[in-house]
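Fold this complex.
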Amino acid sequence: MAQEGQALSQASAPPARTVQLGQNAWAWIGVSPFFIFALMFLILPTLYLVIGAFQDAQGNFTLVNVAQLFTQASIRSAYWISIKISVASAVIGGLFGFALAYAAVIGGLPQWLRPTLMTFSGVASQFAGVPLAFAFLATLGRTGLVTTLLVMLFDFNIYSTGFNLLSFWGLTLTYLYFQIPLMILIITPALDGLRREWREASEILGASYWQYWRYVALPILWPAIVGTTLLLFANSFGAIATAYALTGSSLNIVTILLYAQIRGDVLHDQNLGYALALGMIVITGLSNGAYIWLRARSDRWQR
Amino acid sequence: MAFLDLSDVRKNYGPNTVVHKFDLDVERGEFVSFLGPSGCGKTTTLRMVAGFEVPTAGAIRIDGRDITRLRPNQRNVGMVFQSYALFPNMTVADNVAFGLKIANKPSSEIKARVEEMLNIIKLPHLGGRYPYQLSGGQQQRVALARALAIKPQVLLLDEPLSALDAKIRVSLREEIRSLQRSLGITTIYVTHDQEEALSMSDRIVVMNEGRVEQIGTPFEIYNHPRTRFVASFVGTLNILKGKVVDPAAGKIVIDGQELFASKRIAHLQAGEACSAALRPEAASLHQSELQEAAKIASAFGRESGPRNRMVGTIEEVSFLGSVVRIRVRFKENAVSLDTFNNPNTTPPARGMQVTVSFAREDLLVLEGAEG
Amino acid sequence: MKQQKIGSWIAIIIGTLYFVVPLIGTFEFSLRMRRGEYSFDAYRVVFADPRFQATFGYSTLMALLTIAVGVLIVVPTSYWIQLRLPKLRPLVEFITLMPLVIPAIVIVFGYLRLYNTSSILPLTGSAHSTDLLLVFSYVALALPYMYRAVDTGMRAIDVRVLTEAAENLGARWPTILFRVILPNVRAAILSGAFLTFATVIGEFTMASLLNRPAFGPYLQLIGANRAYEPAALAVIAFLVTWACMGLINVVGHGKQIKAAP
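Structure:
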């Protein structure tokens, strides 16, 4: 494709050079707002923080800020809780989202279920932030519907078991409300990509349904499954609104810590704040990068 | 007793019957094609042999064993799909080895068999490649090797060449046939391409709308089509509509011109409508300016008996390369006929009056003519 | 196969419970404001609150501006990439994915440092320029969705052939872009727009840290201080999201019908 394009432009270049230049000039002008925007509102702000993370208050190069991410207990525990919640919500959301997508695509259920599930997933994956926190407070809060119903019907108080919506598991349970739909939306096309002939070919070669999944379907799907789970991880790692509306600042996760730092410099060190942001970029960047890499791998197979 | 035996096999989807009473005996080592347009039930029948569909009625036996209700993975049948269906996550060698691994064969045996199969399909150096790195023709050869690696009793091929380019199609067609011969494997080949079916098969089953129209050797199917459908589907056939004049003498009239058919039409009534088939290569043209062309054309025609003659006008002349196809119109009917290209004479012009002649035995009065 | 079906049903039932119960719970809770009976009092209070009207109106305006700026940036870029600068495609795609990689809170942190009152470009200096910054931050947030939607639409039509046909007829590129290309990718742009609206309308992080009177921070404030109104607001927010997604389906469906020959 690219070679073809090159050959074409070389062939037509000599007689029409001025025209070509003129047209490309328009093209460059056309895309310039995008690049100016990207530079001003994505690249420079990020670079500012990244550079700041390696400077002290006087602007000299230092690794102290980055080192403090690992040594300062409150920062370390914030990262740790964030990672735990993100892993839990990504893995559970990934597994359950996969199960639902499987049920709708392959499970032999009525036809209408699938579009219903997809539409609902589209809505629920966007239904995040502050209102989601309200919904779970109204349901599983101390006076929420499910909490009171359980007490009334079974004389069972979930809060007596140590459950707290404003805790690790409570936040994970809430995050699943957008994590599961996101998994469904991304993994369904991959499940559709499993061709009927693969199953039939494996079956006629003697394989059972289980062996088909073990040797063919799962190996084909795993880059998509793992990749999407990493995307879910990054998604919940960078989230703040739901957590903040749910717990205020009582839960020490890294986004809430950074929020407090931006608002009032709670770390008493601007540059340490930059390092905090850098740490987040590194973590979400790594998991998104792995996602993109795995995705490309599975696309290559599914051609 | 036949090696593969389908007796009275039927398939309904709810109220729709997709395969009516299907009976077929395939001998060991025979190559049988199912030929027909899409939706004729040929693929459904093949899938019933594979076990992906369960017949509504009837029985399928391989070597005397009733397999009608067995799962596909218990049948020991090999299958090649139109879309290759290679496992994209496995190398060529792993694909070929898959069935053997599932059968828990020792790895040394698997290795030897995979090597053997890759040699047979002439891709011994590609064992480490992934399917997406192969061309379509190579992928289909690997699919063939994968199906044959488990030494199946029957090989099923579902339009294996229709996704490929014309040239590869022809060469792979020959390759499949010679491989089938050398292995002596009983084979069913589904296709909608009559040329494929004619050139490869020992016998052909022509199907239409879920029914078997005719079963026979390629020679029989092409030269003695039993029904109008077979006649029109196999080859480019002229169908002429006329009336019976004298059933005993085989005399019919088409567009006011009297003709004789050699095939007995005694079962028809005088005055009854009928239709007759004529192959493009069976007819020749006569016209004073066209003597040369006519001579050449008639040299290839069969001049054994008395000939029918019809007068008409040239309506269309198409140059097809080695052959020039000429359509001659009478009144209601027209025939296309082929003459060989001769660089030394100009092809006839449109509007020219000509005489078309053909042997009596080449005019086939068809069953089910009313359609 | 039977076991598989039972398993599928179990998954669907658990899923339905998990997704529907909070909605019921929220709705039920929103009706509890009046003691001893169900009423729509919470909704009445919310709708009568001038801050609700003001913040919702403000966020709607921001969302519309975001869509306008987003379209102006994304459509020409996607068009020219397709037509003349295909070599830039990987770079552009990488940039459009950046907002998914860098958390919103980090991006806005960068803005606050880069565009503070003592910088060369003090965008946070006045209310209006901060509004502008908020719009740009939303464009950044929506960029991955917007670009994906438009680019898919552009690829679906043959931009090159359409452009050459229009050039042949003597059209200049503004005419081509606005009269030929835009109408053909309208469905894609609208999908992107509704998705952007759904994302932006209740957005909290950016608006809160830029200190703008948007709907998201208002929600948070009500949540911290009131009992039943938040549930009513959650129901409203859910309905708004549902409406946006429904409109995307409607638009996308119309496009499918048009695309089928």
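The domain at 51-259 of chain C is CATH 1.10.3720.10 (MetI-like fold).
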